[in-house]
Amino acid sequence: MADLTKLAPGAAVLLQGNEAIARGALEAGISLAAAYPGNPSSEILESLADSADSAGIHVEWSANEKVALESAAAASFTGLRAMASMKQNGVNVAQDFICNLNISGVRGGLVLVTCDDPSGISSTNEQDARFISRLASLPLLEPATPEECLAMMRFAFELSEAIGNLVVLRSVSRLSHTRAGVVPGELPAGRALPYWDPKTRWFTVPVVPRHQVMLDKLARARSIMAASGFNRYQGPDRPDLLVIASASSALYAAEARRMLDVEGRVGILKLGCTWPLDEDMILSRLEKASHVLFAEEIDPFLETEIKALYAQNAPRLGVMNFFGKGSGHLPLIGEMTPGKLAGAMAGILGLSWLPVAKDYRLQATQLAQGMAAPRDLAFCPGCPHRASYWTIKQTLAVDGRQGIVSGDIGCYTLGLHPTGFERVNSVHCMGSGLGVASGLGQLKKLGFKQPVVCVVGDSTFFHAALPGLINARWNRSDYVLVVLDNSATAMTGFQPHPGTGVTATGQPGVAVDVESFCRAIGLPAQVVDPYDLGAAQEALYDALQQPDGLRVLIFRRVCALVQGRRGGHPWRMSVDEKLCRGEDCGCHRYCTRVFRCPGLVFDEARGRAAIDEVVCVGCGVCAQICPAGAIKAQAKEDAA
Amino acid sequence: MTQASAASTPPAACLDRLRQEVLDPGLCVACGACLGLCPHLLLYDGQVAAPDPCGLADGRCIDLCPQNPGPDPRQRRAGLQAARGLGDEAPLGPVRRAWWGRAQAADLGGRAQYGGVVSALTALALEQGLIEEAVLTQAGQRGTPEGVRVRDREGVLACAGSIYAAGGSLQALNQALAEPAEHPLGVVALPCQSLAAAAMGAHPRYPAGRRLKLVIGLFCTMNLSARGLRQVLGQAGVEGAVTRSDFPPPPAGVLVVTTRRGVSEIPLEKVRPITLKGCAFCPDLTAELADISVGAAEGSPGWNTIIARSRTGQDLMELALAKGLVEAKAVPEESWAHLTAAAAGKRARAGSAREEINHG
């Protein structure tokens, strides 16, 4: 990312949504930003990290989202402005703190940015994190464009300080990763020194009166937000259909209205401040419409709350018709699109509208398949996880007791798919693999005979695995933990983590290594190179045969992409066509059909396996799985 | 060029049948007949497994498996006997001649099981050039038996003695047969392995199987899980490498295990639970499909019962007698009657076990 302090105030520039959020925070004068990486939020902190030196602020990747928000709150308690950014799942991790911080309140402006991922494009779920505002009675802002990202961030800090509480800003994947013209404002000239008056305390008791204080803050926020100008209506005074929309869905609604050529019949109330609701403005629009469609991602958040608001005012408003996710006019799942909204609008207005032929999607898919190289959802060529899962698959098979693999969050979640030989039995959230394994490891006395392997990445290990590990150790749970240590937070873009010993700004930190931690709780951890299939399989088999307790193996090999940047892998691979058995008995395309590294292809014309030299990185692992010894690894230096 | 897709695996693969008939019901006896043919079948520490789909309809694994019953197990055995010009006489299989015998060579003393005849005959076959290489069984990593390939007397002597656990030793035979070579091979085989060896020799898509010129069979009542045996020995406090193990005839009721530290007796009730489930389906006590079968001589420690079945087997034994490598005497009638009854009992029990699994 770029140093955002270098942007010239007043000069339009193309910024990604996430960069605009970061620039907005800088313009608001933040002093501390903390985050845990997770798509689609990661670029916010990366931009801030690259601006940290120039801005003179502290920016860090924290071990997890809860710690990130707690660190940011600490800065707020000293009077500084601070923020924490995360993906939707991170809000769950931070939730316990949020639901107490909302009562204690804050001093310096404090903003939580959540970047949600409708359709779960790079997530294990498509959770709508706006729930946190409703749950914790916190103001919620939903920008629709990068320009609004910047403006709303500046506003969010003002609002936070005005009411003395945390403010939530919610982005979504399409906004975070879109680029649009933004006009940056001025950066602040200076900032106050952090100071915590020892007479002030931040806490939550007595709960009941402080609960009232929290609600009073929310009421103040309602009036400030109503005056912000982020809620706008555009359309005829008395529309046939009123669309109430937030964020990107407001843009989609405008596009759908154009596509249907109904700009004279449909009005759009675009809400940027979505909690608490600007009730006066919304009621004034409801008075002038009898048909209302809600457009938002992902849950019917506005829809539910505005229908409740209507119920309160129904005697005055009379009978109204509400459409959206509740009525079935829009799906409850997946991203919103202009097409979905156009379909809903057309249905309500009684227009016939067929955007594309019914079998268009099928035809387009077939056409595209012919043009694109076939690719699985797969581990990268040379990925150590492929080798690790190969070992897990082979070893559990010869162990013969129908072993179970408890999985976790990271690149290695793909072990669910053929690229990991479908050798993962359970995946939920960060660290939950260890908790599930801990429970499974107690079931032997109840008759559970299957061995349990838990896989966890190095970054996840530090994020959320430690309590599960300690629990298992304490309660004598019986399983084998395999730490898939690729020395990177690879899934989210190679951010550093505690094990790397480098901080977000590239400065040296103190490396925290997995094996030292394990040793400290009395677990000797054996380090194995997953590229050495024989050694890894033997180590895992031996661990599985040990009778009781928790055993730890660390499969350590740096991420293949990181290795690529460090000068690559040592081997040039080739296939000896005379030895390759192709489709013959006893092999049947073993390497391309079963091992499935993208660097291996099957040459149909010659009936033999081949190396795709553009894709292959030269890790050498496939040479170990070829039963005919046909795949050869030659040192690149010798080959050159 | 294409990347293989998941759709490239057609149904009804040979390996699917092997899983369905043998591996999944737990009937595998780890003989090793399916191993070494392809990368899909794995052996580790005595356990056979197949984690991936193979996709071949006509692979050999299922055809060679002695635990694959086929439509008529009896017919299958009779067919394999007929393929080598022999009959399927009940209950001992074809018998050309039988002896009690024991090896004369001093270097066989101590290690060999009973009379040392297997080692003597194998060494003689190698020395005579009847075979150039023999596949035997030896304790490998973790004490689990595994196949080894030997070419001379020293190699044979290193493998003397029974282990009584399954270790997939035919894997080494398949590996030897896969190499581009022409020399004749021999194998020392349990009854299940003798069946597999006969299947290799007769399989239309296994031309290298014709190189198998000598099968020396071993009598067998049941085999043990290698891991189970290790566990039982561990629980009994037996430490270190086992140099010799034996089931003395009734009424002993024990497994006798010899290590460097001494001799231990494990009660049979500890051993029965680790018997391979698949052994209950085997009708063959005396390796009926071997060229020559060797086992204990009841009530006569230090002697073997020897049954020559084929011309090759008889010639080898008679040469050993002529050279004074083995001394022999007639099998006492009472002992022969006991062996016949025991063999008939095993056939009957296997038949009922098969009935039970088919209809129960």
Topology:
The complex is a heterodimer of chains A (640) and B (360).
Chain A: E1 13-16, H1 17-27, E2 30-35, H2 42-55, E3 58-61, H3 65-77, E4 81-87, H4 88-104, E5 110-116, H5 131-136, E6 140-141, H6 146-163, E7 167-172, H7 173-177, E8 179-182, H8 207-226, E9 232-234, E10 241-246, H9 247-260, E11 266-271, E12 273-275, H10 279-286, E13 291-295, H11 301-317, E14 321-323, H12 338-349, H13 360-371, H14 384-399, E15 404-406, H15 432-440, E16 452-457, H16 458-474, E17 479-485, H17 514-520, E18 525-528, H18 533-545, E19 550-556, H19 560-565, E20 571-575, H20 590-595, E21 600-603, E22 608-611, H21 622-625, E23 631-635, H22 636-639
Parallel strand pairs in A: 2-3, 2-4, 4-5, 5-7, 6-7, 10-11, 10-13, 13-14, 15-16, 16-17, 17-19, 18-19
Antiparallel strand pairs in A: 1-8, 6-12, 9-11, 20-23, 21-22
Helix pairs in contact in A: 1-2, 1-6, 3-4, 9-12, 10-11, 14-18, 15-16
Chain B: H1 14-23, E1 42-44, E2 47-49, H2 61-64, H3 73-83, E3 97-103, H4 117-128, E4 133-139, E5 145-150, H5 153-158, H6 170-178, E6 185-189, H7 191-202, E7 212-218, H8 226-235, E8 242-246, E9 254-259, E10 262-267, H9 268-271, E11 292-296, E12 304-308, H10 311-322, E13 326-329, H11 333-359
Parallel strand pairs in B: 4-6, 6-7, 7-11
Antiparallel strand pairs in B: 1-2, 3-12, 3-13, 4-5, 8-9, 9-10, 11-12
Helix pairs in contact in B: 3-7
